[in-house]
Amino acid sequence: MTGYLGVRCPVCSKKFSASDDIVVCPICGAPHHRECYFSKGECAFNGEHMSGKAWKPPHEPGEASDEAVDKSCVACNRQSPGSNLFCNYCGHELSAESRQQSGGTPYANKSAGTPAGMPWPGTFPSGYADSAMGENETLGDASAREYSVYVGRRADYYLPRFKMIHSGERQYTLNIPALLLGFIFFFYRKMYLAGALMLIPVLVGFAFSILHISETFPVRVDEMSAITNINMRYLFESAGIEVGSHADVNDALAERYQNIFQMLSALNFGVRVFMSLIFNRLYFQQATRQIRRIREEHASATSGNIYDKNDYDAALAKAGGSNIALVIVLIAAIFLISNIALMQLVT
Q1: Residue among 326, 344, 332, 347 nearest 207 (CA)
Q2: What pLDDT digit, counting tens, does each position of 74-105 carry?
């Protein structure tokens, strides 16, 4: 593998040394660190295999090359190969003519092959590169890089599915977190309207579940006492909560509440399955709308199609990404309200 010494791994961008364990793609011949190749799961140039392109070294042995001199990015202060036009980590332009030492470099739509309205080409943000799409590949009028910044974590999962949806190859793909978590995952991914619609049958089901529990409360307390060997009735009544007797239970009404709750649970499961099948499509549509809106806002705030890259990326990341804080607050609120309602009904 001495022929690859000094060449950079396309995954981690580190130069190969004599002690490195190097593997070569059997299709295009591109060298990778073994660890990098298997962590990625495929060749870094997998998206170009269909075109028949073969990997070529950046320069012939003994030939002078810009690769020998690394460039330091003024935005993130990391090293990239000397032949690069853009930073491997943050996408910042490395050419001395256009960069500003402040780090707030404007990018104009003057790059060949960049569709009108797109801010700039360049590399994916660090950690978001996706081999199923080229870094300048577009889905409509937005680039893979823009979708990567918008999605944030797990862009490697969403970009291939966005591509299938856009091309018409597959419109519906199952999203497992959406299936398991339901409305919680929609709120997590900032799909608030869909999440709110999914929350309605859940809340109605909770209401009938609480009504059923309150109606059968004396029975449940005695069952808990039998299971735990603790006089739960005494504990509740000591706390000022009247348990009542089994004679107070309206069996017909309790059964009606239980039946309604079961029907709503079945409905909720059906809705969750359906929404998990269309989640990726809905998320792609939302991302596309948000990217267009943010781009228009930045264009109107500046002189045409010139953007400050850092501001634009920050706006995309803020609109997209995830909202774990809202999910925690929502779950806590539902739990608190449910318990308050139950205490009100049994006292």
Answers
A1: 344
A2: 655 566 666 555 555 555 556 543 333 333 33
Q: List Cβ neighbours of 134 (8 Å cut-off, separation of 6 or more).
A: 47, 48, 144
Cα 56 from Cα 49, distance rounded (Å): 14
Last residue of a domain, one of 44, 64, 84: 64
Question: What is the residue type of 301?
Answer: A
Q: Domain tally for the chain?
A: 2
pLDDT at 233 > cutoff 60: yes
Q: How many helices (H) and strands (E) does the chain have?
A: 11, 8
Residue 210 falls within a domain, yes or no?
Answer: yes
Cα angle: 42, vertex 45, 49; to 5 degrees: 95
SS3 content of the chain, % helix, strand, coil (to 5): 55, 5, 40
Class of residue 42 by CB neighbours under 10 A (exposed 0-12, middle 13-18, buried 19+): middle
Ramachandran bin of 182, using left for φ above 0, alpha for ψ from -120 to 50, beta for the remaining angles: left
Per-residue pLDDT at 1 exceeds 80: no
Burial of 160-188, coded b for 16+ CB within 10 Å and e otherwise, reads bbbbbbeeeeeeeeebebbbebbbbbbbb
How many C-beta neighbours within 10 Å does residue 220 have? 17
Amino acid at 21: D
Please report where in the chains the tokens 């599915």 appear, as a residue.
Answer: 161
Q: Which residue range forms the structural domain that includes residue 30?
A: 1-64
